[in-house]
Amino acid sequence: MYDSYFCRAFLRVLGIPVFSKIAGAVMDSKLSASFVSDFVEKNDIDLSDYEPKAYGSFNDFFTRKVKKDGRPLPKDKNVLISPSDGKVTAYEIDKVNGFVIKNSVYSVRSLLRDKKLAKRFENGYAVIIRLSPDDYHRYCYAATGVKSHDRSIKGVLSTVNPVVNEYVPVYKENSRKYCLIRTQQFGDIIQMEVGALLVGRITNAHPYGRRTVLRGEEKGYFEFGGSTIVMLLERDKVELCGDLLRNTREGYETKLKQGEAIGYKK
Length: 266
What we know:
- Helix content is about 20%, strand content about 30%.
- By secondary structure, the protein is an alpha+beta fold.
- The protein has 2 domains: about 60 residues, no CATH class; about 190 residues, no CATH class.
- Strands 2, 5, 7, 8, 9, 10, 12, 14 and 16 form a 9-stranded antiparallel beta sheet that branches.
- The longest helix has 12 residues.
- The relative contact order is 0.20.
């Protein structure tokens, strides 16, 4: 649909948050529970990985929890983990131009709406974790440290499918929330949740004030649809797994599960 100007215009209208609120109300209804079985079959989801329960609505299913120890953490504390399931790409952050995804240029300043904070991540890395509808949509903290309060940035809600970056700089236009985590092993980390088309609700467990958080501790969840987590890493603090950068340069995403390694203490 993004190949057509008129379809893109229509999707921009759908991206207005009020439509996501309507979609959210439908997905919270008891009637929406009838969508679950077809969705599971279409997306080949293995429900044996998740806690057994009767789902009262589609969002109840969509925010389901994995079984205990379903996403084990590495024993090595110097491993930076993926905070969620998803398809991962990684980019070097240029001091002047930020980073480029397809035809969309992202400056860290435009992403964070904070010039002073953005300078901290010059020449570091941006890691993009794209969740599709079949993924586990709860996410955790990527590292142990002291987190800041959450900052919310209002915006539209475009789809986060990679093809859209040819037309729309989604990560700096979409509604998003982020916090800074000050860690001992990995320096300062930005962990940002980005809403997507018909995903109006990002629910975080600890939105207010400073607090100590633990690697693997649940941070929150997305409701209905595909969404994205963006991580910003400081220069010379983390050695990313080599396949992430290589696959990204070759045009591929790397599929990871929550708890698997993104990088290591440098």
